[in-house]
Amino acid sequence: MAGDLHAAALGCLRAATPDDKVARTFEVFARFERGELAPRSDSPAPGPIEMPGRPDRPRLVPARDLPKRGFGTTEGLAAFVHAIAHIEFNAIDLAWDAVYRYRDMPAPFYADWASVANDEARHFTMLRARLRELGFDYGDFDAHNGLWEMAEKTAHDGLARMALVPRVLEARGLDVTPAMIVKLRQRGDDATADILEAILREEVGHVAAGSRWFRWHCTQRGLEPQATFKSLLGEYARAVLYGPFNREARLEAGFDAEELASLETLAN
Asked: What gap in Å lies between CA 4 and CA 43, rounded to an integer?
């Protein structure tokens, strides 16, 4: 009998150091791919959501307290790379929490989010290596906890989680990354730009997984997706919506024109 994927996901969540979380993630995904781990009906029910394992640094502060830095200095560039690395580190936990928390889902749900966790760990590793090339490391700058705070707010409901974490917070990367890549190339930093281009390609698929499972929940509950998404945006996400939106990437990631119109209306 295959081992318990839910328990393995919890182990990844609780891993505190970046090295341990990444190594556990790669190992668990490889075992899942080999069929050695699977969702188990006899797995203990998920407990209340809790803060996942975290290193002592970075220090977590309100987003408004993070200083604004440009790319003009090595430290400013490193702070930017650190901010993206922190998002990817959080995204590892967000994917594993979906695997751990939401039970009795179709098998492709677990395949999607285990794969996303593996991708996010690889993204974090790439960005951390770039940070080290710049003379810094993960934890050298303060960061905020906004992604995990939304995970806490949506832990009770898989529909809300799929609507708001992949399709709102993580999808923000689809909007802002292309301009960042242009700016980096203009200043001659192809190394960082190449990493962001690789991440952007895969993040479209991650947001698409959120779209797919959001609509699956809507179908199961007899809900109309566009109206449901608009309602959830108004309830949970109005304060974190910022335009302009990358319509092309979002359409590729499973949004439709009405959903994009709702985003643009609420962001104004």
From this structure: 7
* pLDDT per residue rounded down to tens, the chain (268 residues): 899 999 999 999 999 999 999 999 999 999 999 999 999 999 999 989 999 999 999 999 988 888 887 788 999 999 999 999 999 999 999 999 999 999 999 999 999 999 999 999 999 999 999 999 999 999 999 999 988 999 999 999 999 999 999 999 999 999 999 999 999 999 999 999 999 999 999 999 999 999 999 999 999 999 999 999 999 988 888 778 888 999 999 999 999 998 898 888 888 7
Give residue for tokens 């409901």: 157
Half-sphere exposure of 250 (CA within 13 A, CB side): 24
CB atoms within 10 A of CB 191: 13
CA 193, CA 181: separation in Å to the nearest integer?
5
Decide if 160 contacts 228 (C-beta within 8 A). Answer: no
pTM for the predicted model, two decimal places = 0.96
The tokens of 155 are what?
């832990």
